[in-house]
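Sequence, please.
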C-alpha cells in the first residue's frame, strides 16, 4: 500500500491496496461522506458495518451498494440512535455479535446548526449529546474489540472547533442561558477533538495498541446543513455549496485516517486549501484542542454523564 502524501496531490483512495479481511464500523453511513467512505472500503474488498438511525434509509443504501459492488458485498446495518444512550448501548452489543474484529471505528455521524435548543432524553443539548457524548460511550463500549484487532478510532471533527466560543462551556453545557446554534455546534466538535487527543494520550500511557486519529471533511456537499437548521443558515449554505467539494472527496480524510500508516499524533487530516477544499494532508491542530486541563475535566464529565467508567 502506497501511503505517500508528498507533493501537491495529497492523499487519494488510489493509494489504497486491498482491504480484504478488514472490518470498518461507521456511524451515519447511509448518506453523505459516511456512505462515500463505505463505497471506498467495499471497493477494496473490506467488510463494513453501518450504524444508522433509519432502517429504511439503511436498507436503501445497502441495496445501492450491492447493485454497485455485487450481491456478495459485505455490508450490514445495526440500528443506533445517537440521541439516546440506551440505543448506543444496544447497538454496541449488536456490533460485537456480528463483527469479530474492528479495524477502525469511524465516528462520522453528526448533527449541526440546530436552530432552537433541543434536549435529548438523557438531558444533553442535542449537538453535544449526539456528536460527543454518544460517540464517547460507543468508543468505550467497543474499545476492547478494537484493541483485540489492533485497530483504530477515527473521530471526524470540524474546523468549527476553533470558532464559536473556542472553549467547552462547562458552566452551562446546554446553553440554557443564551442558546446559539453555531456556538453549541462548535462546542460539540471541540469536545470531540479534545476527547480524541486525550484518548490518544491515555492509550499511549497504558501501552495499548489502538491508534486514534482525527480528521475533518472540509466544506462538502452533504445533507448535514438541512432539517432543523435556521432558514438563514440554509440560504447561506445554498450560496456556498457550489464552491464546496463533493461528498466523495469529503470522505477521503476519514478513509485516510482509517487506513494510512505513519500518521502523527496531535495532528488532523483534511483538505489544505483554506482547510475547506483541495489536497488531503496532515495539518497541525490549534492548542485549544490539546488543552490537558479541559481534556481531564471533559473525560471525567463524560464518564459521569454516560455512566461509563473507562480506563483505556
Amino acid at each position: 500500500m502506497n501511503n505517500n502524501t508528498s507533493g501537491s496531490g495529497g492523499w487519494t483512495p488510489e493509494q489504497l491496496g486491498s482491504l480484504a479481511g478488514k472490518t470498518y464500523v461507521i456511524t451515519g453511513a447511509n448518506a453523505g461522506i459516511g456512505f462515500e467512505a463505505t463505497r471506498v472500503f467495499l471497493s477494496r474488498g473490506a467488510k463494513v458495518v453501518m450504524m444508522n438511525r433509519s432502517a429504511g434509509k439503511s436498507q436503501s443504501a445497502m441495496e445501492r451498494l450491492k447493485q454497485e459492488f455485487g450481491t456478495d458485498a459485505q455490508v450490514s446495518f445495526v440500528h443506533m440512535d445517537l440521541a439516546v444512550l440506551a440505543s448506543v448501548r444496544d447497538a454496541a452489543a449488536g456490533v460485537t455479535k456480528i463483527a469479530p474484529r474492528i479495524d477502525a471505528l469511524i465516528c462520522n455521524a453528526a448533527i449541526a446548526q440546530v436552530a432552537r435548543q433541543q434536549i435529548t432524553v438523557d438531558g444533553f443539548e442535542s449537538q453535544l449529546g449526539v456528536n460527543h457524548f454518544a460517540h464517547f460511550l460507543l468508543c468505550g463500549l467497543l474499545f476492547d474489540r478494537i484493541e483485540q484487532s489492533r485497530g483504530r478510532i477515527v473521530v471526524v471533527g470540524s474546523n468549527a472547533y476553533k470558532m464559536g466560543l473556542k472553549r467547552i462551556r462547562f458552566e452551562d453545557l446546554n446553553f440554557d442561558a443564551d442558546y446559539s446554534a453555531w456556538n453549541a455546534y462548535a462546542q460539540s466538535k471541540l469536545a470531540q477533538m479534545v476527547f480524541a487527543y486525550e484518548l490518544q494520550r491515555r492509550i499511549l500511557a497504558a501501552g495499548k495498541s489502538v491508534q486514534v486519529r482525527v480528521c475533518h471533511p472540509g466544506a462538502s456537499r452533504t445533507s448535514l446543513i438541512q432539517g432543523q437548521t435556521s432558514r438563514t443558515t440554509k440560504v447561506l449554505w445554498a450560496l456556498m455549496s457550489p464552491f464546496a467539494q463533493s461528498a466523495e472527496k469529503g470522505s477521503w480524510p476519514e478513509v485516510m485516517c482509517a487506513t494510512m500508516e505513519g500518521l502523527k499524533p496531535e495532528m488532523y487530516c483534511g483538505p489544505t486549501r483554506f482547510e475547506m477544499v483541495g489536497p488531503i494532508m496532515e495539518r497541525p491542530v490549534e492548542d485549544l484542542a490539546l488543552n490537558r486541563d479541559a481534556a481531564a475535566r471533559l473525560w471525567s464529565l463524560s464518564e459521569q454523564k454516560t455512566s461509563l467508567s473507562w480506563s483505556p
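The longest strand covers residues 277-284.
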